[in-house]
């Protein structure tokens, strides 16, 4: 199922000293953290908290796959914008494209493709998203 409208969600992230290596460049794995924060806020903007999904709906969203393409380095104290866009919505999964951009010049620093699966909170087996959740994403 394709999303009904491709809404681009943006979340600001500041690069802290802890995000960088000895050269002041963002450590490669931190981009995954930045993207996770943006997806969590995307979910929150649609009215869903992850603990409530687990406790009230009996589901969790887990990353099933990710591919990153690094283009330019982010550096200490940069203000970044992380986008989150649904490119495919399925009964038990969502595919996103995310971009980490430097806010000052809008340059794309990293592009990420992420597959997220909906799983049963107890068994961790794939489970279709409850209808209210699915409808809020479409």
List the helices and strands and how they pair.
Blueprint: E1 9-14, H1 30-45, H2 50-57, E2 59-70, E3 79-90, E4 93-102, E5 108-120, H3 131-137
Antiparallel strand pairs: 1-3, 2-5, 3-4, 4-5
Outline:
This protein is of the alpha+beta class and 138 residues long.
Task: Please provide a written account of the structure.
The protein is of the alpha+beta class. The chain has one domain (9-137): Hotdog Thioesterase (Thiol Ester Dehydrase, Chain A, Roll). The protein has helices at residues 30-45, 50-57, 131-137, and strands at 9-14, 59-70, 79-90, 93-102, 108-120. Strands 1-3-4-5-2 form a five-stranded antiparallel beta sheet, with helices on one face. A hairpin with a 5-residue loop joins β4 (93-102) and β5 (108-120). The longest helix has 16 residues, at 30-45. The radius of gyration is 16 Å and the shape is elongated. The protein starts with 8 loop residues before the first strand and ends with a helix. The model is unreliable at 1-5 (pLDDT under 50).
């Amino acid at each position: 199922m394709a999303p009904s409208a491709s809404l681009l969600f943006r979340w600001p992230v500041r690069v802290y000293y802890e995000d960088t290596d000895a050269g002041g460049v963002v450590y490669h794995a931190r981009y995954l953290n930045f993207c996770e924060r943006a997806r969590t806020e995307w979910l929150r903007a649609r009215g869903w908290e992850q603990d409530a999904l687990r406790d009230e709906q009996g589901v969790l969203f887990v990353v099933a796959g990710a591919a990153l393409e690094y283009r330019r380095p982010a550096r200490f104290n940069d203000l970044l914008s992380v986008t989150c866009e649904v490119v495919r919505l399925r009964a038990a999964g969502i595919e996103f494209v995310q971009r980490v951009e430097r806010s000052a010049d809008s340059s794309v620093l990293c592009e990420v493709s992420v597959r997220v699966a909906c799983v049963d909170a107890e068994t961790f087996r794939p489970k279709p998203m409850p209808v209210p959740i699915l409808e809020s994403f479409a």
